Structure formats: C-alpha cells, structure tokens
Amino acid sequence: MTGLMKEQQHTLSPPMSIPPTPLYTTATGMFRQSHESHLCLFLFVLKNGAVPGEPVKKDENSRRGNWGNQIEFVLTSVGYAVGLGNVWRFPYLCYRNGGGAFMLPYFIMLVFCGIPLFFLELSFGQFASLGCLGVWKISPMFKGVGYGMMVVSTYIGIYYNVVICIAFYYFFMSMTNLLPWTYCNNPWNTPDCSGVVGSGAQLNGSLVNVTSNLIAGASEMVNRTKRTSPSEEYWKHYVLNISDDIGNFGEVRLPILGCLAVSWCVVFLCLIRGVKSSGKVVYFTATFPYVVLTILFIRGITLDGAINGIKYYLTPQWQKVLDAKVWGDAASQIFYSLGCAWGGLITMASYNKFHNNCFRLDSIIISITNCATSVYAGFVIFSILGFMAHHLNVPVSEVADHGPGLAFVAYPEALTLLPISPLWSLLFFFMLILLGLGTQFCLLETLVTAIVDEIGTDWIIRNKTIITLSVAVLGFLLGVPLTTRAGIYWLLLMDNYAASFSLVIISCIMCICIMYVYGHRNYFKDVEMMLGFPPPLFFKVCWRFISPVIISFILIFTVIQYKPITYNDYIYPRWSLAIGFAMALSSVICIPIYALYKISRSPGATFRERLKFACQAHPKWGPALQEHRTGRYAPMASEDTVEARPLKEKEEQKEEQKEVEKERKEEISLTIQGSNGSTNTHNNPNPSA
C-alpha cells in the first residue's frame, strides 16, 4: 500500500500531491488520499486524454488524430446509433404492427439491409480516413451526396438538441418532492383536467398519501367522458404554452431557451478536443443509459399490471406479417435507427486506424446492440404503461403513445403513480439526455470534420476548436425559433420531412456510386487491402443487389404511405407542408447540382468525355498515409496508374536534377588548371590569356 501511495504521488501533478504523514495510516487519511488522487486523475485525463503512468499512444494519423482505442469508437458508435428513437418509436411500432410478429421482419431487415449498409459506411470512411465530403474522391461527380449528408445532419442537429433541452428542463423540474404534473390544482390546468391520483386538497402532500389515493383518482378519471391528464396540460400549457397555429410564433419560452444553451454548452465542451475528448465522455454517456434502463425495468416488472403491458407489447399477431405496411415499418425503423446516410458513420470510422477490423466487432456488434436496445426498451416502457392501464382500468392501447407524446406526457404521468416518483423521473429524463447527447456528439462532429477536411489547411486543423464553437453557436441560434410557442409545430415538421425520404435517396445513390460507378471489384480489393481479407460473399451480394432493392422498397413504401403531418387535432396548413418538402429536397438537390457543376468543369470535347472524367477516381483517392498506399496505390506501381503519375513525375524530376548537378561538377573539374593543379580559373573564362 505504501509503494502504491508513493507511485501515485509521483504520477500526479505537484499541486495535488499530499506529503506523507501519519494520517495515511488511518482509514480517514486513506479515504482523503484516494479522494484527492481520483480527483487529480480525473482532471489530468480530461486535460490530456491519457492516464498517468500509462504509455502515451501515438496517433497513426498525426495530422487528423485517431481514437484512443477501439473501445472509444465502439462506444461512440453505439451512442450514435442508440438514440431517442429506440425508446419512443420502436416499442410503439412493435405493438402497432403485430407485437412479437413484428420481430420477424425487423430482424430480417437488420440482416439484409441494416448490417450491410452499416459495414459499407464504416469501411468507406475508414479506408480514406476522411469525412463525409472528402471520401467522394472515389468519384468526384457524386460529392453532392456528401453535401446532402451535411444538410441532413444540420437539420437533425438543430431540432434534436431542442428535444434534449426539453429533457433537461423536465430533469430540472423533477428535482422536487412532488412532480409538478401530478395534480390538476395548478394555474395552468383546465376544468377538463383529471389526474390519476387524488386531488391535492385530499392529500397532505406526502408521498404515502399520494399512493393511498391511486384507486380513487383512477375511478374519478373513468367516470369522466372527456379527460385531459395533468401531464398533458403541463406539457401544452406550461412547458410549451403552445400557440394555436404554426405561424403564430409568440414569445420565446425563456426556460426552454436557457436549457437549449445548457445543452449546446455540454455538447461543445464534450467535443472541445474532437474525438480525443468525446472518446472519453462516451465511457459514461453510452453505458449509463443501460444502467437506468435496467433500474426502470426491475422496478417496472414488479408493479401490478406490468405483465399485461408486456403481453400487449409482445403477443404476436401473425396475420400482420402478410401486411406490406409491417415490412415497410420494419425496414424504415432499421434504416433510420442505425443512422445510415447521415454522414456520422463515415465520420466516426475515419478516425480509426487503417487496419482496424471494422467488420467483426464494429459493424455486427454495434448493429445488434442497437436493435437489442430497442427491444429491451420496449419492456421498460410497456411494463410501466401496463401498470398505468391497470390502475385506470383501461386497455393498454389507450395509454400507449410514441414520440414526444410518450416521453413528455404518457410516461411522466405513469411515473406519478410510483412511490418516490421524483427519483424515477430524474432517472428517466437523465437517460433521455444521455441517449440524445450520444447522437448529438456525432452530428456535430460530422459537420466539423467535413469543414476541416474540405479546407485542410494547417491553421484550421490546429484551430479545430474554433470551428466546433462556431458550429455550436450557429446551431444554437438556428434552434431559437423552436423554443417559441409555435416551436413544437416546427420541430415535428423538421422531424417528419428533413430526414425522411431524402435519407433513402442518399443511401441508394451511395450504393450505386460505390458498387457500379467506382466498381465493386475495386472496392472489394480496397476492403481486402485494409482488413487483410475480402468482404464475405454475403456482404458482396447485399451491397450489389439486396440492399439497393430494399432501399428502393423503403422509398416506394414511404411515398405510398405518405400522409400530411398532424399534431393531435391540429392540421398543418399547406404552406407549412411546402416548407417541409423544401427541406427534404434541399439535401437531395445537392446531388444533381454538384454533378452538373463538376461535369461542366471537367476537361473533354464532348459531354460523354466530361462525364467519364468526372466519374473517375481522383488521383488522391486511397489510403491517407503513404505507408498504406501499397499495391495499385503504390507510387511506382505502374506508369499508367493515374494515382502514381504525380509521384512518378516527382521522382523523374529528382533524377534529372541529380544528372544536372553531376554534369556541372564535371565541367568545373575541367576548368581547374595550373602547374601544381591548384589554379582555379572559374572567374577567368580564358585561362591561356
């Protein structure tokens, strides 16, 4: 123990070291030393990104940097893929589309579409070590796909952080003895309000009395013909103070605006050093949600009626398997929940080391973890909702909801039925915050990396923090309109249109470009050079045929099943729907616009020659580091190799310079004359004169 203390004192910074005294022989002294040592260790890791006493690992790519280890990348990818949709969308889709029967098409779509696309994007970014813009050196004409990914990530990043800020607000409001959405005796409540617990006048405010009046409150609710829950009125009339129309912005909700500032500050601070700092943060943000889910699950299954909720969630209705809508929902959920075509997967993989095995551990395990989390979250959600339905004596379907309605209305109301409800509320909203932050980290890093890689100067690489701060400030300002009284309308409009069918089109074009324009044989060789083995036959078939077909099916299904967006009883006006379609098209339109621009700037006498040149891989396409440019990317591989020509020309110029210098030396030696061989006539052009 004494040697360990000396080692800690030597490793930690001098200001925090503690001189050895007899105090260390006592339990109190040992606790004090341990406390200060851990505090200093935390500060050192936060500042330097390394643990004292451990050898500092050198980045393979010193210019861009790499993940500290593979675990950081895996946890970041898990945090990116596992988001709010796993909690508030999947359970609802599952019970609506046949319960346990929905699992069959869901996992089929995971195997044939989700995992292959996930592996494709990871290998794409890792091979080039570039973000979602730089990777399109593979075929410069398709760089518009990268710009489309940036536009989508911008839209999502703006409204996603607003959802996180609302979760922050509910988290802060849960720090009380009694949740503010428990009763109907508040200034914002209406006469239609009816709680699931007894009125505040009947109770003395203690949690024991709240629990004892559950049955009375439930009976009162059932007797009413029209019921508005306290949590719904708290959400509409207090948190949002929602206006009557999307065009009626009203004033900014200052508490929400303040929480939005807090949310962006947290995101910026966690990304202040790029993947070096976010890679350390995800050890907590990507793992603690599972701790909270487990706590809520254990608490939920011990409640009365929880089994009914879980049965409602899982009971298979096999006849729905024959419904095309069920398969469409399964494919869409897999596609959107994994974060394909957002640009985040390409960006995160670009910080991997070149020979990292992104197939076995990364692609398969992360994809399966994402889907398993969705299923697990369903147990947590429906155990609590089953308990709520049991107390209200109503079917589970009447209390089930999805999206913001589940996160900020249905589930918070169910939590009021539990003893020590503020504790469970704190845990639930803290989990939502962490789930949202994991995705938001990658969205912001995607934009920053794309900008830094595109400009590529030494100054911007050294000052990447300034770019991160600028993007965060801009994201905060663009999110301010969503904190007004009409903000929820715009948030749902962006959620439904900004990242809907546009993602499907982007992903489909990406597959076509890599497999058919660049060439599947070329890409398979690239993956083999990177991993040491070619992609399995299954993935080759999926990339070329199955996945594009499924993506096309998702697109067709999305168009056929399209319905104008509504929010409860509110119907969006046509002008707002036009804005929604404009947001959706703004990302897709980048692809043809940039393609036409690239073709017009390409050399060639005819349109066909220009098109062919624009589709060819850029000479700089390939591994980022010279040490990895082997085989057909080797500098002297072939005189006809496009990638080798610039390097070959440089080598030829060096050889020519050597020949010129050699000839000059020979000429100088001939001009040296004299009887003793020491007379230098370099300054005399006629030595015989």
From TrEMBL:
Disulfide bonds: C184-C193
Main localization of the protein described in the UniProt heading: membrane
InterPro entries linked: Na/ntran_symport, Na/ntran_symport_glycine_GLY1, SNS_sf
Region (Disordered): 636-689
One CC-aspect GO term: plasma membrane
Residue ranges with Basic and acidic residues bias: 642-668
Localisation: Cell membrane
Keyword Disulfide bond: yes
Molecular functions per Gene Ontology: amino acid:sodium symporter activity; metal ion binding
PROSITE patterns: NA_NEUROTRAN_SYMP_1, NA_NEUROTRAN_SYMP_2, NA_NEUROTRAN_SYMP_3
Keywords, ordered alphabetically: Amino-acid transport, Cell membrane, Disulfide bond, Membrane, Metal-binding, Neurotransmitter transport, Sodium, Symport, Transmembrane, Transmembrane helix, Transport
GO biological process, one term: neurotransmitter transport
Biased composition (Polar residues): 670-689
Membrane topology: Multi-pass membrane protein
TM stretches of this protein: 73-91, 103-124, 145-172, 254-272, 281-301, 334-352, 364-389, 423-444, 465-491, 497-520, 541-562, 574-597
Chain sites annotated for binding Na(+): G79, A81, V82, N86, S337, N370, L435
Reaction(s) this enzyme catalyzes, per UniProt: glycine(out) + chloride(out) + 2 Na(+)(out) = glycine(in) + chloride(in) + 2 Na(+)(in)
Record carries keyword Metal-binding: yes
Family: Belongs to the sodium:neurotransmitter symporter (SNF) (TC 2.A.22) family. SLC6A9 subfamily.
UniProt-recorded name of the protein: Transporter
Species this protein is from: Nothobranchius furzeri (Turquoise killifish)
Gene: SLC6A9
